[in-house]
Amino acid sequence: MTNHSVSNNSKEVDVDSVSSNSKEVDVDSVSNNSKEVDVNNKDSVSKNSKEVDDNYKDSVPKKEDIKVFYEEDEVEWKQLNHKSTPLSLIKEKIDDDQFAPVSIPDMVWMIPPHCNISPSELFGEKEMYLKRIAILTDSQIEFNKSKNRIEMWGGDENFDNLKEAARQFEDIANTVLERKKRGRNKTWDDWEKAERAPLTKKEEKKLERRKKREEEENKYKEMTNDPHPFYGFFVIPDSDIPIEQFIGKNGYMLDPVRIKFKCHIWHEPKHSYIKVVGKNDESVEEASLRVRGLFVKVFAYKSIPPRGWVFHMLEPPNKPHKVRIADPPSWFIKPYDVLDFKLLEPVFEGDKIPIVGKEDASKELDQSFDPAILQGIRESNSKNIEDAFVKALQHIHLLDEVIKIRIRIGHVCLTRFPQRKDSNPLWAIDKFEKVLKNPRILSKFATCLATKDEQLDKLFDDLIFRSKAWEKSNESRKDEKETRELDYSTCCQELDGSPFREFKIYAIRKIPDSENESWPCSFDVKVERYENEKGKIDRSSNSSKRTDRTHDKNDKIGLWDAVLNEKDILDISMACLDSSYSWKILIQTARRLSNDKIGAQGNFVYKLRICPKGRLVYSNTKEINVLSVCEKTKWKYWWLKDYIIEITKYEYWNLSEHQDSPPGIDIPLSKEPSPIVTYGITLYNKSWDEVSFNSNLEPGEVPEWYPHEIVDEEKTGGINSLMKDINNFIEIIQKNVKIY
Hints:
The chain has 18 helices and 29 strands. The chain is α+β, with helices and mostly antiparallel strands. The strands form seven sheets. Strands 16-23-22-21-20-26-27-29 form an eight-stranded antiparallel β-barrel. Strands 5-7-6 form a three-stranded antiparallel beta sheet, with helices on one face. α12 (371-395) packs across α18 (718-736). Mean pLDDT is 78; it is low at 1-101, 185-191, 355-365 and 532-545.
């Protein structure tokens, strides 16, 4: 386009560079002071253009003249459009904006004009969302009303954060649009839908097959009076259990059984039984067993105590000791939800202890060590653990939920304990073992073994040494072509892909159509590690440091699981007096939620991502509000023949302050480091993973495992072998991990 110059008050103005307040200037017809521009005169245009360029060079503003330059530019524009504005008003406007950025924005985000979104909907009340995003992304963000756009400043070093801010505004806009669409009336939605194209022959056949299948399935959902050659009955033995508790409302839990075995199943309230009829003997029998399984599941689960079965036991020492209930040392890291507690402290018999009330006096402890009594306690512990294991597993055998069995290493912290009537603070082993059986005793288990990576260096060195020795023995065995079975007594090998990374997210699950109904739930989200870098432990003989690549921007969100109603079924705490560490067996259950991608859980998880700094970024949804996040980094080792060792780094964020954050606002964990970092150790038998498949059971289905197999001596070695292996592993920890 050709540049045209307009003379006005001895000033040259480049018309193409003039833009203000969405008003246009007709360049070819501009006249001022009754003077016309000769558009067709090329020589004149060239001359005037040169004058404009020269004047432009001379008029480049200096830094100190920026305010004056804007003022003059504003005046020239007003004169060009034949409008006169008082200079006082122009100065007032400039003074109001003197603190606003005068540089070109590093990034802008235009509000989509076709979306019909108002700034109040996009930014919230008093621009709350805009301010929060600015704080979270360390950038300066302002809304330009005249240009209907968001302007952002942050510099080149903060460009990723500006992109993140723009993405968050897009998410908010999409959320507002979805909410508006859901709020439209039916007529508008129908008007908006496109006309359906005619079905193809393939689609018609598919639709026809679907209708036939649905008609066949619905046929078995109804009660029938037609005669059938085979029938069965299940008499309900316990009338205290409501019928809807195990067959569901209107018997919906029986629908999968009806459809799979093609039987009619219904409840007869007068006779208190469930009738099953069908055309096949085997199908009727299988369906009757499924109905029985549904009832047994509910009946067994109902008899579990609210807190599960809790046991406190004492591992007898190999030396003559007594027990004292003592205050924890100042360096001890307490469990996260406990304020006051006590620890069990062994006192060697024969040591001198102070006498209460006499500062300078002391006395020798009486010898009361009886090996026969201590051996009886060990045998009693083994029998009690086996009985508790079988009992707990029998009650959850048919439960179609997630089941987990784990052994934790740590310390037993008594929160409710007995007080002696006399002044003697010491307990004999056999007497205190009986005291621990009192159900009134309460405890928590402290699982923190370290707070820094360096405190576990010796343990990692030991495991790496064992792993190399195991690999060397296997290589020599292959070279010699031996046919004898492997000796797993020294087996130790790190799992491929270690360390593994995952997140535990605790949240509140809301009911969309309810105002106050909600319940706590949790998400277990695994991370797919970057393939080119495994992050394995890298140690040499000269250095014991570990290459801990736990955060990578190329990591991605992987498999996930969502559960609610987490419950402890069995809790056995074993206090070991011969060691600085104790152990605990825990059996837990939880009901799995749907992992449908378009459901409430899927909508939340598929918005999770890893930020450029390698940390998690999440946003609340209409149904899911996050309370806290625990990031876990797990180093896993295969130990002996059947065990998996997990050394876990826990990084915990309490995010309750962001619980009410509106949907679409991203909250990155990289904003501040985790205030709580701890390390813990877990041990479990690989065969125990079999019980976790219960979550895939169909209604009334019996799993392939049985409770007695978990403690069977031939299959797993039994409880005695388990306790021996646990004590051997604790010896390894005792030798390599110092108490803080």
